[in-house]
């Protein structure tokens, strides 16, 4: 086979491929075996008709399309390997000539990954952040633990306060009419959680058990339901029950109850260590995102729309997986938010474009610095995946190979090495 690549414009070019007559005839033989097994010729069982009789009755041309379908994938794969191009979309194939005992000639218009012109990516400056842990931060963590381990007790007398759990019946009205989704019974609401419309929880504060009250609120301008945006509403609220958190004392007994430590001081030191580790992880993420964004901004690259669309589809699938983990489908989400898939994609568009651009730049840096993933890197990643899914390494490798994902894993590892490179060569200011 022969293959050549000619760039036309931007990231579009033409592959010219020629397949020898010998391969064409082999494909025709395979096509004959496949086609003859499906046709009826009087006097012969299916698959037993002689080649000469078949061609005399149907013509050798009847085998051409089947033979082309056999040859094309092999020829295209060979051409990609020979020229080293990386397609990002389906090719537009034109068969220029195909005949028995003749070479097959074809062209394929292909859109490939765009060229990246790298700008400055070494010595990038990153805004520093302290990873030291303050007494106040330890105190806040202890408060959260107190809340988590608090005893919930009923309040028979007294008024609702921020932090209380109010069990309420409610119904909302706009312009005197009830609206869909604005009614609930025996709903548990933690006051101060900001889980309701702004002003609602404040309106419940001060109510007593059994009391009824009208709470006036205004829906935010960015509220998800179009018919309620910016509208004034009245909620008729009845406080059925009131519960209050009884916080435990911060002492050695508390430390024993919530941890493996015997004293509160030991527990505080452990909290400090964990908070510091978390801050260091957060700073590392900050560093990585900062250098990626700067390197990307300094580079020149035309991001193809087809790559953005592919990334958008991947992002929707990721979002759908997260919804399923919460027991919700994508269609349920659209119904609840009064949104469509096109609107969701429109929201995701800027992030998709950024992801594609950043990945292209990281790939270019990895190539420029010789940071391709080694066989050892790949083996470590496969072992990590095997440990995660509790499957043999070879099974993981086989699945990834069958799905065409092995090269993607290698590419992701190369990009990770590029990110590490950017961080190592950056400056914290």
Structure notes:
This protein is α+β, with helices and mostly antiparallel strands. Among the domains are: about 1-110, Trigger factor ribosome-binding domain (Alpha-Beta Plaits); about 150-245, Roll (Chitinase A, domain 3), CATH 3.10.50. Helix content is about 50%, strand content about 20%. The protein has helices at about 20-35, 50-60, 65-85, 135-150, 200-205, 250-260, 265-300, 305-325, 330-335, 340-370, 375-390, 395-400, 405-425, and strands spanning about 1-10, 10-20, 90-95, 105-110, 125, 150-155, 165-175, 175-190, 210-220, 230-245, 425-429. The strands form 3 sheets. Strands 6, 7, 8, 9 and 10 form a 5-stranded antiparallel β-sheet that branches. The protein has a 4-stranded antiparallel β-sheet with strand order 1-2-4-3. Helix 7 crosses helix 10 and helix 11 (about 375-390) packs across helix 12.
What is the correct CATH architecture of the domain at 2-111? 2-Layer Sandwich
Mean pLDDT: 93
Element-level helix/strand string: EEHHHEEEHEEEHEEHHHHHHHHE
The shape, in one word, is: elongated
C-alpha-based Rg, rounded = 33 Å
Terminal-residue CA separation: 57 Å
> How many runs of DSSP E, i.e. beta strands?
11
User: According to CATH, what is the topology of the domain at 2-111?
Assistant: Alpha-Beta Plaits
Task: Please give the count of helices.
Answer: 13
Proportion of residues in β-strands: 15-25%
The CATH H-level superfamily of the domain at 2-111 is Trigger factor ribosome-binding domain
Report the CATH C-level class of the domain at 2-111: Alpha Beta
Largest sheet: 5 strands, antiparallel
Helix content: 40-55%
The helix/strand class is: alpha+beta
């Amino acid at each position: 086979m022969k293959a050549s690549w000619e760039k036309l414009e931007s990231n579009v070019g033409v592959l010219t491929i020629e397949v020898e007559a010998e391969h064409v005839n082999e494909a025709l033989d395979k096509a004959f075996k496949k086609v003859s097994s499906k046709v009826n010729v009087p006097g012969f069982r299916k698959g037993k008709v002689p080649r000469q009789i078949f061609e005399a009755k149907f013509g050798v041309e009847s085998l051409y399309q089947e033979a082309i379908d056999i040859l094309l994938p092999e020829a295209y794969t060979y051409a990609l390997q020979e020229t080293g191009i990386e397609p990002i979309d389906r090719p537009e194939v034109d068969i220029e000539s195909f005949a028995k005992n003749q070479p097959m000639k074809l062209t394929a218009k292909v859109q490939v990954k765009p060229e990246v012109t790298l700008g400055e990516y070494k010595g990038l400056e990153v805004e520093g952040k302290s990873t030291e842990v303050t007494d106040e931060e330890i105190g806040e963590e202890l408060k959260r633990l107190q809340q988590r381990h608090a005893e919930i007790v009923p309040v028979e007398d007294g008024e609702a306060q921020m932090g209380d759990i109010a069990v309420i019946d409610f119904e909302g009205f706009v312009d005197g009419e009830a609206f869909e989704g604005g009614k609930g019974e025996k709903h548990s609401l933690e006051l101060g959680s900001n889980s309701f419309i702004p002003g609602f929880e404040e309106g419940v504060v001060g109510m007593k058990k059994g009391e009824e009250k009208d709470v006036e609120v205004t829906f935010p301008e960015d509220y998800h339901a179009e018919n309620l945006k910016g509208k004034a509403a009245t909620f008729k609220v009845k406080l059925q029950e009131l519960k209050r958190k009884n916080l435990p004392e911060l002492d050695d007994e508390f430390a024993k109850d919530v941890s493996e430590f015997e004293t509160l001081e030991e527990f505080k030191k452990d909290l400090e260590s964990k908070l510091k580790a978390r801050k260091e992880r957060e700073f590392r993420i900050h560093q990585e995102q900062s250098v990626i964004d700067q390197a990307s901004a300094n580079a020149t690259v035309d991001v193809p729309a087809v790559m953005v669309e592919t990334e958008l589809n991947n992002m929707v699938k990721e979002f759908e997986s997260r919804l399923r983990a919460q027991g919700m489908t994508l269609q349920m989400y659209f119904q609840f938010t009064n949104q469509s898939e096109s609107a969701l994609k429109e929201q995701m568009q800027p992030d998709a474009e950024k992801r594609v651009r950043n990945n292209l730049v990281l790939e270019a840096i990895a190539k420029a610095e010789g940071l391709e993933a080694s066989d050892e890197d790949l083996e470590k990643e496969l072992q990590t995946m095997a440990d995660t899914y509790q499957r043999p390494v070879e099974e993981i490798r086989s699945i990834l190979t069958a799905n065409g994902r092995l090269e993607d894993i290698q590419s992701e590892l190369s990009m990770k090495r590029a990110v590490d490179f950017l961080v190592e060569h950056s400056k914290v200011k």
